[in-house]
Amino acid sequence: MALLHEHNPTDASRRRAVLIVDDEELQRNQLVDCLSDLDVVIFQAGNGAEALEIIDDQVPSLIIMDIRMPVMDGVTTVDELSNRGGEMKIILMTGDPMSLEAAYKRRPNVFTIIEKPLPLRVLRRFVIEALGLAA
To answer: pTM for the full model?
Structure first.
C-alpha cells in the first residue's frame, strides 16, 4: 500500500481518502499532483488486484480508476467491489473507446466515466463534486 500524500498524519483518519488506480505511474503521479492541495489522503495502486488489497485495509471515499490495466482491469474491479457492497464512489477513466461500452453497463457505484485525455482541471472538478468538497 502506498500512501502518497498526507498533510497532517494525526488527522488522516478523519479526512476522506482517494485511491488512484492506474498501471501508468506517470498518470498516477499527475493525478496526485493535481489533487495534492485538497484535504484528502491519497493512496495509489497499479492495478485492480492491488486496489482490492488496499481497500481491505483502507476504505476510500473515492476511487479514480483506469479501465484497461494488466492483472485486473477496472470493470472487473468495480464488479468485485459491487459484490462486496460498499458506499465508495468511482470515477472510471479510459483512453480506449471500446472499453467505454463495457463500463457503462450496470455499475451503481460509478460516479462518472471519462475518456482520456481529459484536462486535469476537469477531473479535479469531478473529484471535488464527488467528495462534496468546497471548490
So the answer is: 0.84
pLDDT, one tens digit per residue, over 25-71 is 999 999 999 999 999 999 999 999 999 999 998 889 999 999 999 99
Cross-strand bridge partners of residue 16 = 40
Q: What are phi and psi of 19, to 5 degrees?
A: -110, 120
Could you tell me if 88 and 61 are in contact, meaning their C-beta atoms sit under 8 angstroms apart? yes
What does the DSSP 8-state code read for residue 10? G
Whether domain 2-131 has CATH 3.40.50.2300: the reply is yes
Cis amide bond preceding 117, omega within 30: yes
Alpha carbon distance 116, 59 (integer Å) = 26
